[in-house]
Give the backbone structure.
Amino acid sequence: MNQTIILLLSYIDICIILGFYMYSRKVKKLIGFHLGMNISMVMGGMAALLFGVLLILQFPFHFTFITLISTVIGLLVGAAFGLLIDYQTFVTGITNGIIVGLMAPMIGTVIEIPILFITFIHVLFACCIFVIFISIKRS
């Protein structure tokens, strides 16, 4: 897959995650405990999945480092979103980020049609953010 496309998608993912974090921080009074737990799990897991797959496609034979990097990214994103709510949500975000971060490079190494899979997980990511956005507005 083209190197510039992977870098562009990574940059877009970072911008979306940071933007959604700033929005969540702004409206955190509207977020309940259950919704906060779902937000931290989705964002930590999706960040780890997106970056694990994109990085393993970018650097295909650096399994150990990519696994460590995707795990740390999932851990940090899950923790950041979890800290918006409470300690239990924080722990849930960290745990989910770690689990998905460990699995994402393994998934990335076995995909046969990378562009289809990357498109699928980005559409899934957008749908998750859309559903969370609607859930925040309704609570």
In short: The radius of gyration is 15 Å. Helices lie at 3-26, 33-58, 63-83, 87-110, 114-138. The mean pLDDT is 94.
